[in-house]
Amino acid sequence: MPPSDGFIIAVKPLCKNYPKILHAKKKENPEADTKRKYLAKKPDQIVGQGFYQFVAANLDALARGRGISAKLILPAQMNQYDVRIRKRHIQGNRMQLVVELDNWFLRLFTPNVQVEYDLESRRLLWYRGISMVSNKDNKNVEVITTYDYLQKPSLLSSRVD
What are the residue ranges of helices labelled H in the chain? Predict the structure, then answer.
C-alpha cells in the first residue's frame, strides 16, 4: 500500500547476516495490521538514499561506459527489482544516466528514470521519473526534481571502481 493510504513503510536488517524485512503497518493499529516480506540479503541491494550514494560511488565506471546492475528495493511496493544503470551521455562535467529494469521484456512496459550527476562534485543534479507523489487517482506521478546545493560535498567524494 502506498504511504498516502496511512501506512508506515520500513526496511530494516534483522541482523548482520540475515534477511531484511520490508513491512507496512497501518498507523491506527500498527501491530494488528503488519504485512511483512522477507528478502534475502544481497550485496547489490540498494534502497532510498543508498541509491544515490551507490551511483555516486560508481560514477567513474559509468563514465567509462560500464553498466552497473543492482537490486533496487521499493518499500512501498514491498518488493525489489533488478535494475541496470547506464550512461546516456556526458556533456562537459555533467553525466546523464538512465536507470531501467534489467529485464528487456519488462522494459517495454515500464518507464525509465533519468538522472544527471556532476562528475567533479559527484552530486545528483536532477532526477526525472516516477515519484512517491500520488495524484487524485492514487497513481504515482512523474516528476522532474532539480537539486541546488548550499554545502560542499563530503561523503559523496568517495570513489569505487
Answer: 49-57, 59-63, 104-107
Torsion angles phi and psi, residue 57, rounded to 5: -70, -20
- Residue 17 dihedral angles phi and psi, to the nearest 5°: -110, 15
Q: Write down the pTM of the prediction.
A: 0.73
DSSP conformation letters of 71-114: EEEEGGGTEEEEEEEEEEEEETTEEEEEEEES-HHHHTTS--EE
Q: 47-105 pLDDT, tens per residue?
A: 877 888 899 999 999 999 999 999 998 877 778 899 999 999 999 999 999 999 999 99
- CA–CA dist 58, 68 (Å, integer): 8
Cα–Cα dist 157/57, whole Å:
8
* CA pseudo-torsion sign 114, 79, 17, 48: positive
Give the strands of the sheet with 35-39, arranged side by side: 7-13, 20-26, 35-39
Cell numbers standing for residue 81: 527489482
So where are the chain's domains?
A: 42-157
